[in-house]
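In response to the reviewer comment on reproducibility (Comment 2.3), we provide here a single inverse folding case reported in full, input and output, so that an independent group could reproduce the run without further information from us. The structure tokens appear first.
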């Protein structure tokens, strides 16, 4: 599809995913390939069947491929993230960054939900918005991500049948966006070429991030990033009072000189967003080991 952010948000709510072709123009796509190339060449294939024995996975991409800093704060992508995540939080965070590079001979990854990072039973409000930028073409033969449309709305224990899966085929420069409840997994690479994707995921600001951004990008490193990205990786409030450092706004750790003005435990826009965000009603199931039912209560 090639619509506005509102159309993409509607598709994600309905289908669990959307594919936007031409999201990354040729110049930045060439930069992304060039910046990633030495790291892909130097990275061995994995030793974990789930992550792929014929796959190369690379994290901390903001420092390895600087163009990804621009992708993470792309206004179009953030407008979509606003629509998907902000109904349920005051602010969201970068949850994970990584490259998935599938060599020929890679087999299909086990289907899963990213939302299972957290102990919530499906269907549930979105906790994560996943985005995968296609660095190469994604085809049915080279390992395009396998998705199960509509599965974000399924009961937890429903297992997809083969005819309910489909490859997320898209040309290089496209963007796959999907919600935490969507069942998906990397496809098998039966081709003679490689398949490379660059993931930048976002999560509700009151949840722990999958990739520890504070250790990956400590203050001395984070100071080199754009201000919007500094806040997105976590040098900001997740909600009023949530994430304070020395009783103050964490962004001040990155500023030169002594803090200007009194300490603050929120910002007006964070407080306003918290008032708008939907509240949750959590009901524990009879068997706690099976998870927790999570439903969004009306404001």
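Designed residues, in position order:
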């Amino acid at each position: 599809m090639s619509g506005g952010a509102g159309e993409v948000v509607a598709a994600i709510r309905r289908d669990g995913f959307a594919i936007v072709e031409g999201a990354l123009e040729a110049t930045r796509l060439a930069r992304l390939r060039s910046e990633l190339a030495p790291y892909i060449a130097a990275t061995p294939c994995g030793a974990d069947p789930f992550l792929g024995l014929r796959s190369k996975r690379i994290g901390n991409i903001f420092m390895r491929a600087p163009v990804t800093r621009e992708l993470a704060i792309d206004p179009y992508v953030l407008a979509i993230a606003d629509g998907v995540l902000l109904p349920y939080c005051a602010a969201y965070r970068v949850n994970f960054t990584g490259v998935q590079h599938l060599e020929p001979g890679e087999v299909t990854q086990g289907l899963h939900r990213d939302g299972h990072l957290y102990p919530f039973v499906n269907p549930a409000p979105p906790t994560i918005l996943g985005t995968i930028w296609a660095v190469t073409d994604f085809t049915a033969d080279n390992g395009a991500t396998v998705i199960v449309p509509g599965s974000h709305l399924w009961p937890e224990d429903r297992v997809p049948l083969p005819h309910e899966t489909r490859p997320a085929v898209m040309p290089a420069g496209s963007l796959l966006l999907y919600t935490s409840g969507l069942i998906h997994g990397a496809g098998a690479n039966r081709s003679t070429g490689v398949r490379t994707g660059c993931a930048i995921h976002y999560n509700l600001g009151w949840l722990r991030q999958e990739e520890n951004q504070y250790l990956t990008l400590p203050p001395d490193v984070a100071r080199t990033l754009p201000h919007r990205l500094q806040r997105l990786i976590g040098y900001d409030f997740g909600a009023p009072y949530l994430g304070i450092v020395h009783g103050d706004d964490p962004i001040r750790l990155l500023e030169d000189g002594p803090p200007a003005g009194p300490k603050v435990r929120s910002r007006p826009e964070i407080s306003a967003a918290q008032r708008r965000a939907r509240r949750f009603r959590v009901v524990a199931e009879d068997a706690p080991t099976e998870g927790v039912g999570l439903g969004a209560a009306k404001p």
